[in-house]
Fold each of these.
Amino acid sequence: MDITPIPRYLKNYYLASFFNIKFMPMKKFIGLFLVLLIITVSAMAGGYQVRLQGQKQTGIGLIGTPFKFGASSIFYNPGALSMMESKYSFSLGVSPIFSTAFFQKSGSDYQAQTDNATGTPFYFYGAAKVSDKLAVGLGIYTPYGSSTTWDDDWAGQMLIQNIVLQSVYFQPTLSYQINEKLGIGAGFTYVTGNVDLNKALPYNDNSEANLEGSTSNYGYNIGVFFQANEKLSLGVDYRSKVMMEIEDGDATFIVPASLSTSIPATNKFNAELPLPANLDFGLAYQLNEKLMLAAEVNWVMWGTYDSLTFTFKESGDLLNSSSPRGYKDSWIVRIGAEYKLNEKIIIRAGGYYDPAPTNELYFNPETISLNTIVYTLGLTYKPTEKLCVDLSYIQTFGLEAEKSYEPENFSGKYKAQSYIPGIGITYSF
Amino acid sequence: MTMKYINLFFLMIIILITSCKSEIDDFDATAGSADFTTYLAFGNSLTAGYSSGALSSSGQKYSYPSILAQQFKKVGMQGEFKQPMMPTENGVGLRFSSSGFVFNTRYILGYKQDCLGQVSLSAVSSDPNASQADLQAQLFNSVADDGPFNNVGVPGLKSTDAISPISLFNPFYARFKSENSNYVLDEVSIINPSFFTLWLGSNDVLLYALTGGTGDDITDVGDYSTAMDSVVNRLTKNGAKGAIANIPEITSIPVFTTVPYNALVLTDQNTVDALNAGYAVYNATMEGLGLDYRINFTIGPNALVISDTTMPVPGVLAFRQIKSSELLILSLPQDSIKCAFWGSMIAIPKQYTLIESQIETINQAISGYNNKISEIANLYSLALVDMNTYLTKFETGMVFDGMEFNTKYVTGGLFGLGGDHLNPRGYAVIANHFIDAINRKFSANIPQVNLSDFQGTHFP
């Protein structure tokens, strides 16, 4: 599918608003959302995790657990959902990711850079309070994904030429307010995912393998929200690991005719890829009527991603591979602030440091995850009491580092950057 | 008022997006203490870019000196690096055969039918229609007018040839010889390099080894030393710096390791019995002579019967089964084993084998040459490129950028189809090893080349 019209469409949207032209009509926007639903791809720092699941949270350093921002709590902290102030809340948004990774081969003047497709993580949340204490909701969001496209003939072509990893989470959620201060919540997650990758084979110039597969699995998301006093709120959330087990994925091999007897052109493969668990703890402090400060710590349990193994149905002796990844758990520390300019405008800013979960010796260019510094900006405009238009902008800086993938003796300097504008709306009544 | 804030927000984002540009700094190429202004490469067929059994324009393009010159340009090399280019992509090769010299084109991988009617992947001529006369004309056609040449790599050149008019009889030299040169080494003074690479000595053992000791003598280590002294003296005369590569263990290259010692596969008990019966007299005679030689066959792979004139027996009995430590040469016509009883009823002629004593002599010579090369490197402060140690690493296999390399024929990815020279990607590996040694010796920072930019073995 051709995805180029999407960013252009969004760009027009930004320009239109910049020149004070009327906002896009709602209908059109929903149409756009549906298109994005089909083509979700994304890429960001921290392995292949993407936390852009709410524009308000994105603007404030991607902190989410200590807030009751309404329906988007379904992802960030189901415990806070029952604390929402309106009876109904709907929220949807998208954050196109424009990312580039740079590479400089060790000991050589060879350079390459990615030409990644624009990632489009999106979210949709709907929630309703069925009683004073109980809220139900449904979230559809995309917390994992990546898109990395190197030139087909780049130096690391035997490791990876391009890869797209996508996942969509569907999460029905229940949240219960134990008392005015304490809310708990839990969601069941149904996850669908797919992967599509190409790598060159060391025979002739155009020899390559394509692996494509999809799968689904289940997980959960539980959270607790605590409003300690008028000023201080705390939240903790745990999202379970989901193992994406691909069975009978389609493998296509383009090899010279003379090798076609040992390497069949089409084949089936099994592989599994973990979407790791997260434990988040955050707190927010309302300094005065206008200013709120917040901080959060995320424990991302990447340690589970130890190796990537492909087993093939035919010619397994020749084709099966297990290559180490050796990821380690990472700790992300986030800070953010929110300032109410007036009744209609709230602005936000934040930042965080996201240490790479990747292993020094097993850094595979399929996932360019570096120690990353990020700043975030956000703005909420409330044209009416019920409607919020949420804008965000974040920029990530993957710090230059020398990395290698030892088993294939491939090493070099990497650097990465991305800029991610985001837009969403929340309608509560 | 409200819109102003929103507009400010967008303005800020636009400024942030347009202001961010973060690429990796360019590689800082430096020459260190060497001067690469004028580069000259001196050596034999490896230096010339001989590949897949021939010297061809397609191979010369990826000679290691040509690859090095591309990189030296980034650290001050001036002008063009000139090579005496062959007129065609398929080129011309020269090999010994029982009927004298034979010309051939470059080999490519293709399908060949053997005497049993089985078709398999083999090295075949890239231009089966080329006539001997055409190929000879190509090779004898002088390109001297395009010179002088920076690549003085002469296929077939031995160390002693470099300083002797005998090199004039080598058509690979005759085709680009400068008017004022008396022999190959004189070409150096015409270019007058500021930096050189020298890799010379393989042929001093290889021409002997490739013919099973029948076609040439191994150069005496003393003669090698004398010749190399002259060569290095001339190369360094005007203060040039350079790199010298030593000689790899030639017996570990595919031309000697592809045909297994036990290439005779027997599947039929009757044949086994008939052969054993046929050798009963031989075995009894050897026993009678008090010698350990026995010839014995079983179902499965069997050691081939080879001719060995070093045996302490009369000529008619000078054959035996080959030992697992001995080598067969790729030039051995394997159809003769399958269909003409070579290795079973007929002893394989000695031009296709290297027996233990020959291998030992070869290795002793190489070790003597390499001692001399180390001595020269020390004395003249040259970068020593240790190809001998490097090649042993490829015997177990090396991986670069996800590509595996080893010393196996065809699948090893390093050697061309001749089994004795490298393919373009293999020459790039060699060039990078030169760069490594040069960088270390002269504190330079010359960038290595990206191996996947070069063609490995091309499968049909």
Amino acid sequence: MSSQIFKAEKKDLSSIRIFIKEYLNKTDIEESLQYQIILAVGEAIMNIVQHAYKGGNSLKKIQVRIELTNNIIIIELIDEGEKVDPKKIKPRKLEEIRPGGLGTHFIKMVMDEVKWIEPDEGWVNHLVLKKKIN
Amino acid sequence: MNIKEEKIGEKLIAHIDGEIDLEKTDDLREKISKILDDNSKVELDLTQVTYIDSSGVAVLIESNQKAQELSKDLTLRLSEPVLSVLKMAKLESFFNLV
């Protein structure tokens, strides 16, 4: 498993993608699937920055963990922002073409499992994303 | 992300390269909006864009809507990553692609 803590700002989004990419590059996962995984993680991180951290907070942190085990990629995103209510997160209907509302759709399209679990003390939200690698 | 403008005849081509994410989209939105204000024919060359997320797609949607409102001719030329993301959003027929 690889783990790193990042600041919760927009300018840190690319660093998180690089961290994920570097791990995936060490696996046999093919390029187009790697891109989709990075996209899904990027969307989840963007949601954390925009919603849990109301646009970004340089004083706050996001912990990112990634592991490939038993042919399943597991990515965990742990933050200390505002508590998320998963029931309020809904993707928009794709037929309603408008800017916004696609991030959740991309995450659910790519990942096989998306769930929030109880975070360790000191953290507020703990999101787990899983993708089975064939 | 970098944006370079090239005028060919009456068409303005905006060559965009790099990654388009939440950090970059305000800047991209502003620049494309100005280009649409100032030109009747615009091509967004995204062939060198290596990553785009939903915030980048939102800018493309807004730009397309603005072009339609202003009766401007807007076309997009895409890289494989950008095309794959538009396909995930079922938007490939919403834009004029070249």
Amino acid sequence: MITLFGTELSVDAYRVRLFLALLALPYRRQESNILRLDDDGTVLEGSDRILIHLAHRHNLSGSWRLYGSWLDVGRDLPSRKLFRQMDEHLWFAEQEGPGWLCGGHPTIADLACFPAVVLSESAGVSRLPFPALRRWSDRIRQLPGFVAMPGIFV
Amino acid sequence: MTLSGWFPVARSADLAPRHVFQTGLSGQEIALWRDRDGRANAWENRCPHRGVRLSIGANLGSELRCQYHGWRFASGTGQCVAIPAHPGQTPSERHRATVYRCTERFGLVWVSLADEAEDIPTLPGSIWLPLRGMFVEAPLVLVERHVMDSDEVRFFLQPVTDQQTVIHGLWIGSVGDPVALLRQQNDALTQLRNRIESEAA
């Protein structure tokens, strides 16, 4: 049994909730200010570590596992400079494939970056100059099992 | 350098199905969307009901749905066709998104904010490869001074606001590996952008 300790409005907890939903894993949620996941006795803290753990234990096809340097990027978002780099990277990813951050599938790299991207306007960073980034966030919204968080329009 | 009433606002291929593309022209925000028949719409990025940005709405294929109260507007005319809060009511003619003239040529989407506009410039040849649009934080007049056409590439500028400009390039030379060419031209435009922005700062 998986138990997720976290708060409804936390961006970190949302990353994990979104991944659990996309993997269609049942879980219980308990209110807590510190994000923590208990997976049948294995206890992890921090959304990056939790995403990596879930990708290895529960994603048997392995398609979600890659993340490159994007978990670090996800922590520093939103920033205009990083949005520029992401927009360029994603535009070329669209020319050569389906347009995900790491290769031909959505991965935990995409999930780690998604919340800060779609919440950027409330942090004062417009996405108008980054059209490839906007298309990518639409692709994530269209993934089967996608769940929204308060403030993120579906 | 070609300037007229028509301005490129996006690469045609970047207007993805079921997507609403957010851009701007001369300080006017625009929601661009392609309907299921392939027609491109350019509308003021503002719902006529409560002023919410239409670019956060949903492209339903033949209608655009505002995210706020779900009003739906028809491709082509911008006429409101459904108001969920009043399902039995036919929406008034006044409930209409502001529609701009929009057409596609050379693999680019062009918009004119005025009713009358000169023709879109003509280009030699019949094969054009649109480059990735390069967004520059600088006014059009400054960007204009740095951008130079050649035998192989023509540039068109989109003044997004008075401080932001997009450089749209059309490659008209020979193409071997298109993605390699796009990368190489994108690198050159990135360097140009950095020079312009350091001058603008």
Amino acid sequence: MPALDGRVAVVTGADQPLGRGLALAVGAAGASVGLVGATDPLAAVTAELDARGGRATAVDATLTDPTDVSVAFATVADELGGAVRVVVHAAMDPLAYEPIPFEAVDDQRFEAVWEGTMRAALAVLRASFAQMRGRGGHVLVVTPTISMSGAPRLAPYAAALEGQRLLAKSAARQWGADGIRVNCLAPAPEQVPIGVQSLDVSLAPAALGGPGDPERDLGPVAVFLAGDDAHFVTGATVGVDGGVWMAP
Amino acid sequence: MTGALAGRTAIVTGAGQGVGQGIAAALARRGASVVLAARRAETGEPAAAAIRDRGGEATCVVTDVTRGDDVARCVTETVDRYGALHVMVHNAFHGGRPCRLEDVDDALWAANSRTAVWGSYYCARAAAPHLAAAGTRGRLLFVTSPAGVEGSVNLPVYGPVKAAQRALAKSLAREWGPRGVTVNCLAPVAETPALTAAFDANPVLRERLEARTALGRVGDAERDVGAVAAFLASDDGGYITGQTLVCDGGSFLGL
């Protein structure tokens, strides 16, 4: 039986290649998938999931609006016939991806990237908690290794990623007793459109030869972490970058 | 004045008490002219006076680090008074009470985010041109916490905002390296009013902290923590950048 058979999942950020690949992997593992975000770009991914014989829906939500996110999660649960037990949070405001010298960052941009990212992560975590409390579940927060390596001209983005990564640890520490696990997946910087290569932040090339394919290379790790075999893993950051960033 | 920091000017935010006061005193003891950026004159002025009483150079500039214009004004006043700014230390923080993550409200989030992360952003932005002018003497230092790496059970947004400071520091270290400017974080544990309050609220905490600490004691803000900040600010610390220096007597050993 597939690892996530019969479970209801929510994936954010599926409008980007990384989130799309993770959504397809979660679907292939047997989960019904609700794509939460701006629905326009999500229709193609929903169609792909449907075409592969899975159940999928897209629900419109502004991720920085906590009420909107809670309602979207509840809608996914209704439409797909069960509480949400698997969440993959891969969304990011595209503004965060724009490299810009620190001195050119203004309050408006810092607000959008730092506060926006954290508000969305908090909203997704709390909506997950509402769905999973008493039932258990897994939340995966996607934090590219830039969070740990830093990158020039991307300071607000790196700060927001690292804030998310620690928010996941807080949730993991507090919600373990509720059967809720929270982990982070750390892909290579090539997986997001920031123009940074692994070799820009590491002396070592990828041991496994590349940043990998979101669905085939990163997807199985996301599925494993969400599944029962990972029932004792929480608060962890799993690097899935082909063997570049090896700290710790 | 002689000393490793003679001729340097430093700003320390949150310098009216605790770790900030200890860092300000340690920098001044080594010859730096120090501006104590404190939110309240009631604490900042006596802390500056104490430094002057023992022969150091110190001025209090009342500053709210959650306001960009306030931080910019503090930097301008510092440069007007002392002619340069070599060392910017952002230490000020206001975090609030223990709570559940699902219960975090806007006010609690804002207190953490505004003082730790926005404060870091404002300090870095206002100091940037002066640190660039200081070149290989330019230093930006954020005071963070071991909780920014390992997280905290009871303070669910403390870890995130302290972690964000670490990532800001790493990114700015890479960006400003070509100018010779270093950017680091210091993660201390020291006797402070904030820690005393935490011990008062949870008496077993002191015992647990001391038991986990290899050196068996909670640090002194000036002698144990300030001295390390002064090292990072000095020429001897000039090849360290993008790092978090944990200064907690050997409690958190996760780096």
